[in-house]
Amino acid sequence: MYAIPEEVCGLWEKYKGKKARPSPEELLGILTFVVREYFEKVYVVLDALDECSERQILLPILHQLMDSKCASLFLMSRSEHDIQKSFSGLSIYSTTIESHHVAGYSHDSPWCILHIPS
User: In the chain, which residue ranges form alpha helices assigned H by DSSP?
Assistant: First the structure.
């Protein structure tokens, strides 16, 4: 069994017993560090991105994670304008899945993107 990285413990200690929480930037920094330091390959799979109530915070974090080239991302979402606009112009693979290919799915066609760092 692996020990929890010292940096993660430090962040926990910093906020333990406080009403404040780490900022998205602090969490992304720790995630990026841990991924680079402790793992050879990391895959992030995020389903229902369109259902995230804090997309305005999450989308820039996903961009920063992609820019860091420390993880491969597979994101799934309904085809929402703000999400598609956020990822337009990037060198990613995106596709739309026809809803008749997904059993029991009767809503808008799911939209997927795949980012594999070079």
Answer: 6-15, 24-38, 55-68, 81-87
pLDDT greater than 60 at residue 103: no
Q: Give the C-alpha separation, 4 to 10, whole Å.
A: 10
d(CA 72, CA 88): 18
Dihedral in degrees, nearest 10, Cα atoms 21, 86, 75, 11: -20
Higher pLDDT, 62 or 88: 62
Tens digit of each residue's pLDDT (9 = 90 or more) over 22-59 = 999 999 999 999 999 988 889 999 998 999 999 999 99
Nearest to 113 by CA among 83, 62, 63, 75: 75
Distance of alpha carbon 93 from the chain centroid:
15
This prediction has a pTM of 0.74
Residue owning tokens 């606009």: 85
Give the integer Cα–Cα distance in Å for 12 and 72: 26
